[in-house]
Amino acid sequence: MRLGVLDVGSNTVHLLVVDAHPGARPLPAHSHKVELRLAQLLDEAGAVSPEGVDRLIAVVKEALQAAEDKGVEDLLPFATSAVREASNADDVLARVHTETGVELQVLSGAEEARLTFLAARRWFGWSAGKLLVLDIGGGSLEIAYGIDEEPDAAVSLPLGAGRLTAGWLPGDPPDPEAIRALRRHVRAQIARTVGEFARFGAPDHVVATSKTFKQLARLAGAARSAEGLYVQRELKRESLEAWVPQLAGMTEAQRSELPGVSEGRAGQLLAGALVAEGAMDLFGVEKLEICPWALREGVILRRLDHMGSV
User: What secondary structure does DSSP assign to 87-140, as a single string?
Assistant: First the structure.
């Protein structure tokens, strides 16, 4: 059957259409993405502005039309941190449902981490052993660890690249003192969670998902996305540490000219790099591998599992 996943994230609203059935890997058929930057459409009280809700509804309607055009039989709509943490989340969800018919499932941070972990586990398989999975989104950082398909530990921290850029790095290029303050904040937040994972022992394989990690790996010499999903892509901490000060001295326009960096993500790449560097350092990770599958694939796989068990 043809499934659609509608992901209302902090940066983008992304419809992923796949051909799938239980026991088989989902095959991508279509992708429809709009950069909404919902996390930046909050007012001082933390509510999504009326204009922001109007734009969200328009984008959801556009995605629904694309899903219909591509023959989607079952749509799985969900929202992550931007909607989850909005002070008017219930009102936003109600308006979206009333005006589009779409009932967005709001995932908790822990659910995001678990579903992303499931996707990574299925991608790398049992031979990967104990997995540590890192995912940097627009609003949050997810960390999960385990040897099975359900992680032994899963946490979500408010360390998304978009959130941190808006709250800590207003300049272009950012002020060095602001960068140092953000670096301290990021590492203090991550350090609080390290003990929760350390008790399970060292991972056999460390993987990362998300656009931020993919772009950082590309800067460090990884293959272009055009070379396909199955090319191994790695990010070494020493390469990342060399890039952080360079990114810190660049303007957003200069970053957008770097290989693999999209114009829409250039502004938040430095914050993402600080989070990635802090996580790799504090967890003692010298090298990680980029996983092509992430949260959306995890949602699809969970749905297929439920279909197969009926």
Answer: TTHHHHHHHHHHHH----EE--HHHHHHHHHHHHHHHH-GGG-SEEEEEE-SS-
- The tokens for 299 are 């949602």
pLDDT, tens digit (0-9, with 9 covering 90-100), for 194-225? 999 999 999 999 999 999 999 999 999 999 98
- Each residue of 224-241: pLDDT tens digit? 988 988 999 999 999 999
**Alpha carbon distances (Å) from 105 to 31, 121, 307:** 20, 23, 18
pLDDT given at position 131: 98
| 283 φψ region: left (φ > 0), alpha (ψ -120 to 50), beta (else) | alpha
Give the Cα separation of 296 and 7 in Å (integer). Answer: 7
Cβ neighbours of residue 268 under 8 Å, at least 6 residues apart? Answer: 138, 161, 162, 164, 165, 212
Of the candidates 139, 33, 43, which has an alpha carbon nearest to the alpha carbon of residue 82?
A: 139
| pTM score, whole prediction | 0.95
Which residue type does 134 have? L
Position 3: which residue type?
Answer: L
Alpha carbons 160 and 194: distance in angstroms, whole number: 18
Please, what's the b/e burial string for 113-129 (b: 16 or more CB within 10 A of its CB; e: otherwise)?
Answer: bbbbbbbbbbbbeeebe
Residue found by looking up tokens 């930046």 in the block? 40
Which residue numbers in the chain have pLDDT < 50? 310
Q: What is the DSSP string of 268-305?
A: GHHHHHHHHHHHHHHTT-SEEEE-S--HHHHHHHHHHH
Is the four-CA dihedral 120, 123, 124, 129 of positive or negative sign? Answer: positive
